[in-house]
Write the structure tokens for this entry.
Amino acid sequence: MNKMTTYSLALLVVLSILAGCGKEEAVPSTSPAASATTTATPNTATSTTSPVTTATASPQTSAKPVQNPSASPKASSTPSKSDGLQVIAKPESVTVLVNKQFSLPSSYEPTDLVYPDIPFTFAEKIEKRKMRSVAAEAIEKLVAGAKKDGINIAGVSAYRSYATQKSLFQRYVQKDGEEKAKMYSAVPGTSEHETGLAIDVSGSDGKCAAEDCFGGTKEANWLEKHVQEYGFVIRYPKGKEKITGYQYEPWHIRYVGVDTAKDMVAKKMTMEEYYNAVPVSK
């Protein structure tokens, strides 16, 4: 009886131990495996999709605008008119590039226009006698310098408002047709005269004023040699018609400042070339 009791007790102990071991193995074998699979999937999606897309998209988007400033003239901006012209952001700049691609705002009017103390080919004190103060001072020095060399320079036409340029251009179109008019006159907004920094000049007798016959005169020859000393350049030089978009105009000079003028003349460059702007087509 004691043996049977002992055997029974021993059997119960063994069965109890075996049953306990079965429960502890069953719980971890199911739970951790399922948990690992669930957490691995979201982490993989987050780390391989989101960061890569963000990293590659951002730099490509921000790289494009950086190229624009280097392709454009320093004094110019990117807003465009419906006719394809680029509207200048800083029209008051002394080195502003105004041509068939870059237009002044139609509302622009210089705030420092004055009457330079030089002779003109007319007596009236009207709009086209004005220049911006810095250019007026420079043209006074130029005329005085020419006089010392025995050359008498007179003004023919300086500042023009947008309205004046519009009226003038329309008159030329009626006379010669638009294509021909564009070779010697500017569409309103694109004339250098509207900056107050340009002036057409001639000899004091007014002969060949703003005409081809001015080329080769003693006044034209003096200007070609000396304008840069006073901060001016001959804006539309001979042989550069395809770049400037205008015929040779030895009478049209433009103030850009002494340092810039001397550098441009030394390099034999137009403003389009100097500022690395896209050449103007006819």
